[in-house]
């Protein structure tokens, strides 16, 4: 796997507006983003990747998923089932 760092895009205004409307009292994940903003960026993980090979998924995104799994006390398998139900 190789890493092709990309900047983390801003959250679209419509997405932020809908999320705040859906959770007017807040939500732990909205608070996580508001408080920590971008706690990881691809460059933080650059030393872990080869310069050759197929491009990897964004490591910042995978790290954030691991944090969310931990917060929900979920392993990979239940997290996958939970994601499928949400779609």
Report what the structure shows.
The protein contains four helices and no strands. It has 87 residues and is mainly α. It has one domain (13-86). The model has no long low-confidence stretch (mean pLDDT 83).
The fraction of residues assigned to DSSP E strands is under 5%
- Could you give the count of β-strands? 0
Radius of gyration: 15 Å
Approximate shape: globular
- Major sheet summary line: none
Total discrete domains: 1
Structural classification? mainly alpha
Low-confidence stretches: none
Number of helices: 4
The span between the termini is 28 Å
Rounded mean pLDDT score = 83
Secondary-structure element order, N to C: HHHH
**Proportion in helices:** 40-55%
Pick out its properties.
87 residues
Question: What would a concise description of this structure say?
Answer:
This protein has 87 residues and is mainly α. It has one domain (13-86).
Q: Which helices and strands appear, and what pairs or packs with what?
A:
Layout (H helix, E strand, L loop, with lengths): L12 H10 L5 H9 L22 H14 L3 H11 L1
